[in-house]
Automatic annotation (TrEMBL):
The keyword Nucleotide-binding does not apply. Residues 435-549 form the GH3 C-terminal domain. One of its GO terms (molecular function) is acid-amino acid ligase activity. Residues 339-420 form the GH3 middle domain. Keywords: Ligase. One of its GO terms (cellular component) is cytoplasm. The gene is gb27156. Belongs to the IAA-amido conjugating enzyme family. Transmembrane segments: none annotated. This is Uncharacterized protein. Pfam families: GH3, GH3_C, GH3_M.
């Protein structure tokens, strides 16, 4: 239950909202001041000294002197910090730890600087989200059933702890008192939250058990990502009888929970048999129709909250680089959720995006870019890539997230996440780009080469028509391959996606086995003809590497030319 470290008084939500109103009334002025603070504080850092700012802190000088940057541009500087360089490489204040991004390229996780300023902005996001949520859905004091999980840590050469940004936040001194102040004290012991990632099924089981033990006190059911709540209650459908048995006898399952530290922590909460609670849970489960309404049935005093704030700008993401905004309209349905930018937690720019023909940007578009614009210069309905400058040493950093402007709250924009610019395949928290797909195909193609076969062309699709979703890879080969060869290729494709979000989801059963569909010869020629019929030019044609569900024409061609289908056994 994230043990108490310091007391905190209950948060005054109306006071927080008043502060938010003041911040967003003149967002342009707040942005100028935020940039001034960042640049003044870090003027003597190696990175900024080399760019010719000479102490200037105005937006015009900043944009003219400091180039747009990607992680590759900053990676050498971050690597030096991780290796122990404390000379003020990117920030004047110390980098306290390293955050690891969940997205990877070529199996390599990105290192990002983490410091106390990111903790402060995270707490501001939490407080703001809570204030608006509590205004819309008032809750009394109680506990929170939070499906949150710590991540594995290691120490860099320079002695810094490296882990996910969320774990860095969970372990901060500010986290517990903030959770208490916003009435979100977790009902699960720390040992469960910070157990080894390989113990995820045990942690999930214990989250459910602790939630039931405190069911009368649970006021909030939440998770960083909505998918975690879905997965939790899909699991509950399978294990509820075992949970009732544990509660009835006051003894934790010896098969479901084996980690000693986790067993000790949860066993202390079980304490003694509670047949009355077990009977109540069983009665409620028996009364449900196809598990509809399971959360309000089990936790009648709770509200469901799965989108309290935007990690960066997208729900399937952690706050590795930094935060952008909070959900200040929690009454909106999930499909209409927006995140309102807090103008004091970073300096934000936005690259306008258009397709080649001037149409709105989309996930599979080839974008034409314009010069970045400021936070208050956005146009409603337009698409942009987010660029951020933070107190943690990222300057004009391209996030790669595409957002659409849904409107404004006072003078600050409300954003909707659209897609990742280079993200081809995703189902929940997994992130695989076109390059990741290429590497997977190259790896599996080595098996074909031994049989004197080769891939003529390929594509992919994230199939979410059934739950859990799974990746589908379409292959056109130069000759027929036997089923054993295709099976080996399929297994290798599945293993070759090394993104931690994908691997973890596959091991947890949150993503189903990858499917390889072998196509008739000439299938991609049919795809070409399909695009030509729509006015595309041969000179500009490129086979779509990931076909979204919305592209029904191409999916119909691919699915209509399948000659063999195999499913991966890589994680069996």
């Amino acid at each position: 239950m994230l043990e108490e470290k310091k007391k905190a008084k209950k948060l005054d939500g109306e006071e927080v909202i008043a502060e938010f109103e003041e911040l967003t009334r003149d967002a342009a002025a707040v942005q100028r001041e935020t940039l001034r603070q960042i640049l003044a504080e870090n003027a003597d850092t190696e990175y900024l000294r080399g760019l010719g700012l000479d102490g200037r802190t105005d937006p015009e000088s900043f944009r003219s002197c400091v180039p747009l940057a990607t992680h590759a541009d900053l990676e050498p500087y971050i690597a030096r910090i991780a290796d122990g360089d404390t000379s003020g490489v990117l920030t004047a204040k110390p980098v306290t730890s390293i955050s690891l991004s969940s997205g990877t390229t070529q199996g390599k996780r990105k290192y990002l600087p983490f410091n106390q300023e990111l903790v402060k902005s995270t707490m501001q996001i939490y407080r703001t989200s809570y204030a608006f949520r509590n205004r819309a859905f008032p809750v009394e004091s109680g506990k929170a059933l939070q499906f949150i999980y710590g991540s594995r840590q290691f120490t860099t050469v320079g002695g810094l702890t490296a882990t996910t940004a969320t774990t860095n936040v969970y372990r901060s001194e500010e986290f517990v008192p903030t959770m208490r102040a916003i009435q979100s004290q977790c009902c699960t012991p720390d040992a469960v939250i910070f157990s080894a990632p390989d113990d995820f099924p045990q942690s999930l089981y214990c989250h459910l058990l602790c939630g039931l033990l405190f069911s009368g006190e649970v006021r909030i059911v939440s998770a960083t990502f909505a998918h975690s709540v879905v997965l939790a209650f899909q699991t509950f459908e399978r294990v509820w009888e075992e949970l009732c048995n544990d509660i009835r006898h006051g003894v934790l399952s010896a098969t479901r929970v084996t980690a000693p530290a986790v067993r000790r922590a949860v066993a202390a909460l079980l304490a003694e048999p509670n047949p009355a609670l077990a009977d109540e849970v069983a009665r409620k489960c028996a009364g449900l129709s196809n598990w509809y309404g399971v959360i309000p049935a089990l936790f009648p005093n709770a509200s469901s909250d799965t989108t309290p704030a935007a990690c960066r700008s997208s729900p399937p993401s952690t706050a590795s680089e930094g935060w952008i905004g909070a959900n200040v309209e929690p009454e909106n349905p999930p499909e209409a959720v927006t995140f309102t930018v807090l103008p004091n937690i970073g300096y934000f720019e936005f690259i306008p995006l258009k397709t080649g023909d001037g149409a709105d940007a989309a996930a599979d578009s080839c974008y034409a870019e314009a010069e970045p614009v400021g936070l208050t210069d956005l146009a409603v309905g337009e698409h942009y890539e987010v660029v951020m400058t933070t107190f943690a040493g990222l300057y004009r950093y391209r996030l790669g997230d595409v957002v659409k402007v849904a409107g404004f709250y006072n003078s600050t924009p409300k954003l909707q996440f659209v897609c990742r610019r280079n993200l081809m395949l995703t189902i929940n928290i997994d992130k695989n780009s076109e390059q990741d797909l290429q590497l997977a195909v190259d790896s599996a193609a080595k098996i074909l080469a031994a049989e004197k076969l080769e891939v003529v062309d390929y594509s992919s699709h994230a199939d979410v028509s059934r739950d859990p979703g799974h990746y589908v890879i379409f292959w056109e080969l130069n000759a027929e391959a036997n089923r054993d060869v295709l099976q080996s290729c399929c297994d290798e494709l599945d293993r070759a996606f090394t993104d931690p979000g994908y691997v973890g989801s596959r091991k947890a059963g949150a993503i189903a086995p990858l499917e390889l569909r072998a196509l008739q010869r000439g299938t991609f020629q049919k795809v070409l003809r399909h695009y030509l019929a729509q006015g595309a030019a041969v000179s500009q044609f490129k086979s779509p590497r990931c076909v979204p569900r919305s592209n029904s024409g191409v999916l119909q061609i691919l699915n209509g030319n399948v000659v063999e289908t195999v499913f991966s056994a890589a994680y069996d």
